[in-house]
Specification:
With 203 residues, the chain is mainly alpha-helical. Helix content is 48%, strand content 10%. The protein has seven helices and four strands, in the order αββααββαααα.
Length: 203
């Protein structure tokens, strides 16, 4: 990682303060809507509507990520992202389309395991296995949104078109995400984070 630098101490503090303020405001606004969505998801999936899964976070440490359940049965691995998975409920498709299933991650930001903007947290076998300068991605907290997330906002549709979605994800999408996220970290700015958040909300 000789020529690739991550965020310095001042930048990390600034990013955390920004996250905390925004997460506090967001949690106050969306607390009751989140509870309602969890209740509706519980009815839709016949399981408790708040879904948790271990994801790889900063410094490759595992953390519990919160989402609203969108599938019947267990949501596990890459195929939680496949749009036409028959286990995705009608209500779950609505949640995924508008990214409402991600709202509980406001609490991950409050807890300090995630940031508003950063690389999306993956299951084991991806970020935790990065080598060399690519491991700069592990120096920041994973994000609710980010440049790679926006680049692949139609990821479900793209994977649906593939004969082997797992292979396509590993050989094409994942490699491009690594490149985009490295660029994000080495060129980080608070204004940049704000732009990514606004682009996520308003398209």
């Amino acid at each position: 990682m000789k020529n690739v630098k991550g965020l310095n101490r001042e930048q990390r503090v600034l990013k955390r303060v920004f996250d905390l303020l925004l997460a506090l405001i967001g949690s106050l606004i969306f607390f009751f809507p989140i509870l309602l969505l969890i209740a509706l998801a519980t009815i839709s999936t016949k399981k408790f509507g708040l879904y948790t899964q271990y994801r790889v976070g900063q410094h490759a440490k595992l953390f519990v990520m919160f989402k609203i359940r969108t599938m019947q049965g267990d949501d596990d691995g890459l195929f939680i992202y496949i749009k036409n998975n028959s286990r995705v409920t009608v209500f779950g498709k609505y949640l995924r389309k508008f990214k409402l299933d991600e709202l509980p991650q406001l609490f991950n930001v409050l807890l300090g395991s995630m940031s508003f903007v950063g690389p999306r947290p993956d299951v084991k076998g991806y970020a935790d296995e990065l080598q060399g300068e690519d491991r700069i991605i592990l120096t920041v907290k994973p994000g609710i949104t980010g440049p790679a997330t926006l680049q692949f906002k139609d990821e479900e549709e793209l994977l649906d078109l593939q004969k082997n979605p797992l292979k396509y994800n590993d050989e094409v999408i994942w490699k491009e995400k690594v490149r985009i996220n490295k660029k994000y970290i080495t060129n980080w700015s608070l204004i940049g984070d704000l732009k990514f958040i606004l682009k996520t909300i308003f398209g």
